[in-house]
Amino acid sequence: MDSSPRAADHESGPQSGNQPAGNGLAGVRRVDYSGDGLVESDVAASPYLQARDWVDAAVAASKERDDVPEPTAISVATVDVSGTPDVRTVLMRFFDERGPGFVTNLGSAKSEHLQANPRVAAALTWPAIYRAIRFRGTAELVGRDEVEDYFDSRPYGSRLSAWASDQSRPAADRHELELKWQEALERFPDHGGEHDVPVPDFWGGWRIVCDEVEFWAGRRNRLHDRIVFRRTGDGDLADAASWTRLRLQP
Ligand SMILES: Cc1cc2nc3c(=O)[nH]c(=O)nc-3n(C[C@H](O)[C@H](O)[C@H](O)COP(=O)(O)O)c2cc1C
């Protein structure tokens, strides 16, 4: 893959150069996307295999270069009870044939949204390697065993923060948070064990059971590739027979 972002000099015509003044973004460098693209003959048989390949490539790239810093950072969009969308970034902590998953506070705004309306969309975006994956589907709670295994692997201080944060609720100031963290530290002393800090009841994970998975690959002149898998059967992401594939215009 040609992996270095290309600046304006690779894009031809009057659009070349920095963004025109007047859009509030003067000085933003125009980058032409010169990735490998994605052609039908190279697409994996199932959305799982294709996503696995790209996630693994992004994780590998993050170890080799500085411009793919959090390869599993995923934007998750929900809607609140009034139908108003919201979006935030979390880290994808699970990914297998069942779909991408993340951990969070089960009383947070996002969890409240998903409890009321489990329809969800998410996107992994890797601008430096000209790739993105979009997922649409329905959220379901990750099993308690998986959540506990993951929680126990977190650094001690992060496990305490799960107890200290009533996520998405107001706090008086920074001091209040640090006090709550200190209280958690005194309640669950560090003996160096993975079970020193229990998993809070109000903490867990969500998995996206997908109906649609899109692979976007940035190409020259903004003539990008978009290959989308849409669900046609009941199988998981690895069951090729449960998906149909099509190309969308960029
Ligand atoms: C790179 C990055 C990773 C994050 N990872 C998580 C995460 O794994 N879980 C989480 O609950 N919040 C995570 N956050 C914080 C969320 O973006 C968000 O602030 C928080 O979950 C509250 O969102 P909500 O009020 O919409 O529920 C992360 C933020 C960033 C920028």
- Gyration radius, rounded: 21 Å
Topology order in helix (H) and strand (E) letters: HEEEHEEHHHEEE
List each distinct ligand once: flavin mononucleotide
Name the structural class. Answer: alpha+beta
State the end-to-end distance.
20 Å
Let me know the largest β-sheet.
6 strands, antiparallel, barrel
Uncertain runs with pLDDT below 50, 5 residues or more? 1-16
- Indicate the multimeric state: single chain
| Amount of beta strand | 25-35%
The CATH superfamily is identified as Electron Transport, Fmn-binding Protein, Chain A
Number of domains: 1
The mean pLDDT is: 93
**Can you list the strand order of the major beta sheet?**
1-2-3-6-5-4
Number of helices: 5
- What is the CATH architecture assignment? Roll
Count the beta strands.
8
Morphology call: globular
CATH class categorisation? Mainly Beta
* CATH structural fold name: Pnp Oxidase, Chain A
InterPro entries: Pyridox_Oxase (IPR000659), Pyridox_Oxase_CS (IPR019740), Pyridox_Oxase_N (IPR011576), Pyridoxamine_oxidase_dimer_C (IPR019576), Split_barrel_FMN-bd (IPR012349)
Binding site for substrate: 30-33, 93, 150, 154, 158, 222-224
Protein name: Pyridoxamine 5'-phosphate oxidase
Domain Pyridoxamine 5'-phosphate oxidase N-terminal: 66-184
